[in-house]
Design a protein that fits this description.
Blueprint lengths: L1 H13 L3 H35 L7 E4 L2 E8 L3 E5 L4 E5 H6 L2 E3 L6
Antiparallel strand pairs: 1-2, 1-5, 2-3, 3-4
Helix pairs in contact: 1-2
Protein backbone atom coordinates (compact mmCIF):
# COMPACT_ATOMS: atom_id res chain seq x y z
CA UNK A 1 0.00 0.00 0.00
CA UNK A 2 2.89 2.35 0.74
CA UNK A 3 4.34 1.73 -2.70
CA UNK A 4 1.01 2.62 -4.27
CA UNK A 5 0.96 5.96 -2.45
CA UNK A 6 4.55 6.71 -3.45
CA UNK A 7 3.86 5.79 -7.07
CA UNK A 8 0.76 7.99 -7.08
CA UNK A 9 2.77 10.91 -5.71
CA UNK A 10 5.55 10.45 -8.27
CA UNK A 11 3.13 10.20 -11.19
CA UNK A 12 1.20 13.24 -9.99
CA UNK A 13 4.46 15.23 -9.85
CA UNK A 14 5.42 14.16 -13.36
CA UNK A 15 2.01 14.81 -14.88
CA UNK A 16 -0.81 17.19 -14.13
CA UNK A 17 -3.36 14.42 -14.65
CA UNK A 18 -4.70 13.32 -11.25
CA UNK A 19 -6.61 10.42 -12.79
CA UNK A 20 -3.37 8.98 -14.20
CA UNK A 21 -1.73 9.22 -10.78
CA UNK A 22 -4.63 7.47 -9.07
CA UNK A 23 -4.75 4.78 -11.76
CA UNK A 24 -1.02 4.10 -11.45
CA UNK A 25 -1.24 3.97 -7.65
CA UNK A 26 -4.24 1.66 -7.74
CA UNK A 27 -2.53 -0.65 -10.20
CA UNK A 28 0.62 -0.76 -8.06
CA UNK A 29 -1.47 -1.55 -4.98
CA UNK A 30 -3.25 -4.35 -6.82
CA UNK A 31 0.03 -5.86 -8.02
CA UNK A 32 1.58 -5.70 -4.55
CA UNK A 33 -1.54 -7.19 -2.97
CA UNK A 34 -1.60 -10.12 -5.36
CA UNK A 35 2.16 -10.67 -5.03
CA UNK A 36 2.05 -10.85 -1.22
CA UNK A 37 -1.23 -12.75 -0.88
CA UNK A 38 0.31 -16.17 -0.23
CA UNK A 39 3.00 -14.78 2.08
CA UNK A 40 0.45 -12.94 4.21
CA UNK A 41 -1.85 -15.99 4.14
CA UNK A 42 0.95 -18.21 5.45
CA UNK A 43 1.84 -15.70 8.17
CA UNK A 44 -1.76 -15.44 9.36
CA UNK A 45 -2.14 -19.24 9.28
CA UNK A 46 1.14 -19.60 11.20
CA UNK A 47 -0.07 -17.18 13.86
CA UNK A 48 -3.26 -19.25 14.14
CA UNK A 49 -1.19 -22.44 14.55
CA UNK A 50 0.93 -20.84 17.26
CA UNK A 51 -2.09 -19.52 19.17
CA UNK A 52 -4.35 -22.57 18.89
CA UNK A 53 -1.50 -25.09 19.16
CA UNK A 54 -3.18 -28.09 17.53
CA UNK A 55 0.27 -29.71 17.34
CA UNK A 56 3.40 -29.40 19.41
CA UNK A 57 7.04 -30.19 18.81
CA UNK A 58 7.47 -33.93 19.24
CA UNK A 59 3.96 -34.92 18.09
CA UNK A 60 3.68 -37.59 15.40
CA UNK A 61 1.18 -36.36 12.82
CA UNK A 62 -0.08 -36.82 9.28
CA UNK A 63 -0.99 -33.65 7.40
CA UNK A 64 -1.36 -32.91 3.69
CA UNK A 65 -0.41 -36.50 2.89
CA UNK A 66 2.86 -36.33 4.85
CA UNK A 67 3.61 -38.20 8.07
CA UNK A 68 6.37 -37.46 10.53
CA UNK A 69 7.37 -35.95 13.83
CA UNK A 70 6.87 -32.21 14.34
CA UNK A 71 10.29 -30.59 14.64
CA UNK A 72 9.33 -26.91 14.43
CA UNK A 73 6.29 -24.66 13.99
CA UNK A 74 6.96 -21.20 12.56
CA UNK A 75 4.84 -18.41 11.10
CA UNK A 76 5.53 -19.58 7.57
CA UNK A 77 5.70 -23.38 7.81
CA UNK A 78 5.58 -26.52 9.89
CA UNK A 79 8.61 -28.83 9.76
CA UNK A 80 8.10 -32.59 9.88
CA UNK A 81 10.97 -35.03 10.31
CA UNK A 82 10.65 -38.38 8.56
CA UNK A 83 13.02 -41.34 8.55
CA UNK A 84 15.06 -39.91 5.69
CA UNK A 85 14.22 -36.20 5.35
CA UNK A 86 12.63 -33.07 6.74
CA UNK A 87 9.46 -31.75 5.12
CA UNK A 88 8.43 -28.10 5.30
CA UNK A 89 4.67 -27.68 4.86
CA UNK A 90 3.32 -24.13 4.40
CA UNK A 91 1.18 -23.01 7.35
CA UNK A 92 -1.81 -22.26 5.13
CA UNK A 93 -1.80 -25.90 3.94
CA UNK A 94 -1.67 -27.16 7.53
CA UNK A 95 -4.64 -25.02 8.58
CA UNK A 96 -6.82 -26.13 5.67
CA UNK A 97 -5.84 -29.83 5.59
CA UNK A 98 -7.05 -32.72 7.70
CA UNK A 99 -4.54 -33.18 10.52
CA UNK A 100 -4.19 -36.56 12.23
CA UNK A 101 -2.33 -36.62 15.54
CA UNK A 102 -0.99 -40.12 16.24
CA UNK A 103 -0.22 -39.44 19.90
CA UNK A 104 -2.00 -37.35 22.50
CA UNK A 105 -0.33 -34.10 23.58
CA UNK A 106 0.72 -33.74 27.19
CA UNK A 107 -1.72 -31.62 29.25
Amino acid sequence: AAYAVILSAVVSLLTSNVAAALTAGSFAGLVMGLATQSVIGNAVAGAFLMLSRPVRVGDNITVAGNSGQVVNVTLMHLVLSTEDSEIMIPSSNVVTAVLVRHNSPDP
